[in-house]
């Protein structure tokens, strides 16, 4: 069985988007919904670890509240890919490949534009996956779990998970989804704070981190340059 785990704070968004698409799925699944409308959880890592503890499935699918599965076999596709790798893989909907190109078949925003410039037909290997959707076997999750210390906000928890998986020889792959993400990723102060912590934790093993938002060096000077540059840009735009 597949456990679909979602932390949400807007019940109407959850019902109109995620639950609408999940109801069409032809796989055996359970819904594990973590209500954070009253800010009980201080981070995505804590909320999703809590959800995983409550789950009964052999496969965990962690996803945002504002996605819509547009095909009835989406969960089956996740299950088949995980079995194809004998359970030792992290599966997702988007990532940035070694050519520094975002690979995905999902669309996002009001204009329903593709979230990346490269499509995937079977699967594509990436360093880390976008947090809009992450899936893995129970065994992989129990080896790693979401890092509640490095990721004590609502950002980078999935990126950190994939990096930790890679140190154990577990790859991350993007598979084709016909799926829509209603919002678009945004940078915030919390995003940069989590970035600094994750870069510090993984810089010995990874000189560069390629995530869907951007690519950055993990060395101390490179990380701080990236953070200062983007924070100044957002400040000038009045976005932070």
Overview of this protein structure:
With 240 residues, the protein is an alpha/beta fold. Helices cover 34% and strands 23% of the residues. It contains seven helices and 15 strands.
Quote the average pLDDT: 92
Please give the radius of gyration in angstroms. 17 Å
Range of helix content: 25-40%
User: Helix and strand succession?
Assistant: EHEHEEHEEEEEEEHHEEHEEH
β-strand amount: 15-25%
Largest sheet report: 7 strands, mixed
Gist of the model:
With 240 residues, the protein is α/β, with parallel strands linked by helices.
What's the topology here?
Blueprint: E1 2-8, H1 11-22, E2 29-35, H2 44-53, E3 59-63, E4 67-69, H3 74-84, E5 90-92, E6 94-96, E7 102-104, E8 107-108, E9 113-114, E10 124-126, E11 133-137, H4 138-144, H5 157-167, E12 172-174, E13 179-181, H6 189-202, E14 208-210, E15 215-217, H7 220-236
Parallel strand pairs: 1-2, 1-3, 5-12, 8-13
Antiparallel strand pairs: 3-11, 4-13, 5-11, 6-7, 8-9, 10-12, 14-15
Helix pairs in contact: 6-7
């Amino acid at each position: 069985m597949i456990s679909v785990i979602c932390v949400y704070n807007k019940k109407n968004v959850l019902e109109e988007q995620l639950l609408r698409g999940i109801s069409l799925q032809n796989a055996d699944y359970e819904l594990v919904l973590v209500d954070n409308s009253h800010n009980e959880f201080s981070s995505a890592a804590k909320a999703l670890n809590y959800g995983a503890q409550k789950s009964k499935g052999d496969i965990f699918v962690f996803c945002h509240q504002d996605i819509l599965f547009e095909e009835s076999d989406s969960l089956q596709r996740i299950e088949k890919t995980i079995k194809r790798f004998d359970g030792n893989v992290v599966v997702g909907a988007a990532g940035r490949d070694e050519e520094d190109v975002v690979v995905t078949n999902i669309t996002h925003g009001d204009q329903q534009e593709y979230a990346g410039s490269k499509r995937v037909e079977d699967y594509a290997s990436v360093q880390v996956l976008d947090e809009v959707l992450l899936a893995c076997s129970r065994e992989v999750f129990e080896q790693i779990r979401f890092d509640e210390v490095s990721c004590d906000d609502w950002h980078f928890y999935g990126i950190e998970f994939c990096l930790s998986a890679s140190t154990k020889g577990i790859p991350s792959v993007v598979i084709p989804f016909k799926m829509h993400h209603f919002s678009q990723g945004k940078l915030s102060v919390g995003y940069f704070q989590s970035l600094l912590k994750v870069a510090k934790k993984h810089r010995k093993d990874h000189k560069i981190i390629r995530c869907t938002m951007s690519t950055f060096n993990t060395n101390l000077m490179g990380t701080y340059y990236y953070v200062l540059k983007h924070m100044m840009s957002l400040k000038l735009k009045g976005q932070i």
